[in-house]
Design brief:
The longest helix is centred in the middle third of the chain and has 36 residues. The chain folds into two domains: 33 residues; 53 residues, SH3 type barrels, CATH 2.30.30. Strand 1 and strand 2 form a beta hairpin. Strands 4-3-2-1-5 form a five-stranded antiparallel sheet. The protein is α+β, with helices and mostly antiparallel strands and 112 residues long. It contains two helices and five strands; from the N terminus they run H-E-E-E-E-E-H. It is a single-pass membrane protein.
Length: 112
């Protein structure tokens, strides 16, 4: 029979919840959002801003690594694309946003 009858729970006098319970829940949610902002959102925006600045500062002759791991020297640029010289007489066209890092000058010669 207990399967069909809900269990009774004790309540305070007048059937009201303790004072301040709702305020605590709202404060907890606000605190949780602020914590999430400082742990996840803010660092991601900072990295995104740094990447955008790096991509906009690219120039002809820079040595770069793409997000796929291809190393090359920038031979030409336009608004959205760049052409990389990856080997002798081998040029590949990439989107600028796929640059992972700009390498110091002479890195390609020291590797190859």
């Amino acid at each position: 029979m207990s399967l069909f009858i809900a269990s009774a729970h004790a309540q305070t006098a007048g059937g009201q919840a303790p004072a301040g319970g709702e305020l605590f829940q709202i404060g907890f949610l606000v605190l949780l959002f602020v914590l999430f902002y400082f742990i996840a959102i803010r660092p991601q925006r900072k990295r995104q801003k740094e990447h955008t600045e790096m991509v906009s500062a690219l120039s002809k002759g820079d040595e770069v690594v793409t997000s796929s791991g291809i190393l090359g020297k920038v031979t030409s640029l336009d608004d959205n694309y760049m052409v990389l010289n990856v080997a002798n007489n081998v040029e590949m066209k990439f989107q600028r946003i796929h640059v992972h890092a700009v390498l110091p000058k002479g890195t390609l010669k020291s590797i190859g």
